[in-house]
Amino acid sequence: MEPVLQARKLVKRYGRVVAMDRADFELYPGEILAVIGDNGAGKSTLIKALSGAVQPDGGEILLDGKPVHFTSPIDAREAGIETVYQTLAMSPALSITDNMFMGREIKKPGFRGTWLRQLDRKKMEEIAREKLNELGLLTIQNINQAVETLSGGQRQGVAVARAAAFGSKVVIMDEPTAALGVKESRRVLELIKDVRARGLPIVLISHNMPHVFEVADRIHIHRLGSRACVIKPSDFTMSDAVAIMTGAMDPPDSMAA
Amino acid sequence: MTLESKPAKGPANYESAVASGPQAVASFDDQRHGIGHKIQHTLHQTPSLVPLIVLVISLVVFGLLLGSKLFSPFALTLILQQVQIVGIVAAAQSIVILTAGIDLSVGAIMVLSSVVMGQFTFRYGLPVEISIVCGLICGTLCGYLNGFLVAIVKLPPFIVTLGMWQIVLATNFLYSANETIRSQEIAEVAPLLQFFGNKVNVGGAIFTYGVIFMVVLVMVLAYALRQTAWGRHVYAVGDDPEAAQLSGVQVKKVLISVYMLSGLICAFAGWAMIGRIGSVSPTTGQLANIESITAVVIGGISLFGGRGSVLGTLFGALIVGVFTLSLRLLGADAQWTYLLIGILIIGAVAIDQWIRKVSV
Asked: Where does the sequence pass through the membrane (chain B) (predicted)?
């Protein structure tokens, strides 16, 4: 099977610091791939390169087998890679609909759209409601309320819904449960599974081992700027994963990259 | 932490407790039924409501004190005429402040543009239409410079426009040689410069074209901010520029467009000012920056960006106009006007802070 998103020998240097040292990465269709690694292992640089926020100094990124060069997150987005940032990247004072369609608003057809540049609020609201419904976020009743009036879990839900609605190839999620309580985390994990069920592969960056082991199909362990190995959560324990991540245990030979 | 040694398949056991608990997570906390919260929510949704209420209250209070002296078509439209210049400039100031910026150079750009319109006509003998277009371009260019320095060079808007204020004002004095073009001359040679001074009389109510322009401008801006993608982007940039960038807004373009539009509107204000005072004078409009910021703040636009509406700015300008004229009709010392406006400014910002707490 061909990977949806693949990186080969990515290199990124910041001055004399090598953040990525010939890092490889593969994401297959329909899977949840967790990326774990200690602080400073270079996993966020890898993710930023995949989402277009950082331009690698060497190596290549392939989307559906074709090389791509992203110069900004907007590039990656246009190619079908949506990212849910840890900060969520939402404008708190604007409504849920405004936020979901930020940067890709729908204009009214005909004269009012072309000449008066009027937005088609009704249509955007409909789509926003439909997308939130699909992910079971119906409890958010008023689609026009400001995002700042939502709870942390609801905001995360809106961000995930936005990514799932517009991501056609890949959804990247950066620490989606980090700021949430136990119940809200549970809800977001269900959301992640729902998104996978709809056929979108997901890259999940997390420090939370129970969450990673619960939802991931495969776990990419990053260490010292490159991939140490990829494991299946059913074959290893959490302590093994942490041991590989921190270097206390050698990566299993058969799986080593 | 639970790093058990057995292979972890399902969720760790401690989380099974969660499943048995109530599943409502993303529902609303509807405990807050107090009237205070309801008001807070309403104001959060419609920020121009506060200045509208203040405007109505001040009209009622001064109306009771002054009776028909204030409630005549003449007096009421006089207020409109007196606030037209500040109103137009404040509309420009509004869109800049919505992006969490500030434009201290609005008054200077306004004066320079009017001087360009006048001098191009009288010094170089250009057709007045072309001079006016040159004046409008001049204002837009000044705005572009502001926008470039803020968006691309990434200097703080306060510093950029503080510098531009001095630069533009000095250019204005140097270029005009401090020379006023008299009203009579303009009326004879180039009456188009006084276009915005033309009047429509509707049963004692006098509307100048400048007043009509101010109202139409505010309506157009209100539409653009509310109904177009550009308007939504202006709010997003003012709210959180990094979030806006990540969600696909071209922050730099939006900022530059906002400062350019502000410059263009200021140039229109310069044109309207010729209509208001009749002459082209390089020494007018010195207080336009402070007066426009006052109108914006009283109008409920947050100085921190991303909140408020341009309609509120119009109400803010009108509040100042009502206070100024009413107190003069009452024969009070002009200082009372400043004192009361000072209180209004602080009150408006206090209310803004309170509305922001709606999310907590």
From this structure: 49-71, 83-110, 130-151, 206-225, 254-274, 286-304, 311-330, 336-355
Rounded to the nearest angstrom, the gap between the alpha carbon of residue B173 and the centroid of all alpha carbons in its chain is: 26
For residues B135-148, average pLDDT: 97
Strands A170-174 and A202-205: what pairing? parallel
Helix residue spans in chain A (DSSP H): 43-50, 73-78, 96-100, 111-114, 121-134, 152-166, 182-197, 209-215, 238-246
Neighbours of B118 (CB within 10 A): 28
Nearest to A27 by CA among A60, A3, A10, A47: A3
Structural domains of chain A sorted by starting position, each given as residue range(s) with its CATH number in brackets: 5-255 (3.40.50.300)
How many Cβ atoms sit within 10 Å of the Cβ of residue B341? 17
- Going B203 to B209 to B210 to B215, the CA torsion angle's sign is positive
Report in angstroms the alpha-carbon separations of B336 from A253, B45, B76, B247, B330: 84, 33, 20, 48, 11
With beta carbons under 8 A apart, name residues in chain A contacting B358. 148-149
Domains in chain B, ordered, with CATH? 49-350 (1.10.3470)
**Dist. CA B113–CA B119, nearest whole Å:** 10
User: Using CA atoms, how far apart are residues B56 and B52, in angstroms rounded to an integer?
Assistant: 6
Could you tell me if residue A206 is left (phi over 0), alpha (psi between -120 and 50 degrees) or otherwise beta? beta
- Taking only residues 82 to 111 of chain B, the set having a beta carbon closer than 8 angstroms to any beta carbon of chain A reads none
- pLDDT at residue B326, rounded to an integer: 94
Q: Binning pLDDT at 50, 70 and 90, where does residue B2 land?
A: very low
Q: Give the burial string for B137-151 (b: 16+ CB within 10 Å, else e).
A: ebbbbbbbbbbbbbb
Complex ipTM more than 0.95, yes or no: no
Q: What average pLDDT score do residues B263-292 get? A: 94
**Residue B306: which of A74, A93, A107 has the nearest Cβ?**
A93
Task: Please state the φ and ψ torsions of residue A222, each to the nearest 5 degrees.
Answer: -100, 135
Chain B partners within 8 Å of A152 (Cβ): none
A3-17 pLDDT tens trace? 999 999 999 999 888
Predicted structure pTM score:
0.87
- Token pair for B29: 């906390």
- pLDDT computed for residue A207 by the predictor: 87
Nearest to A89 among B10, B233, B246 (CB): B246
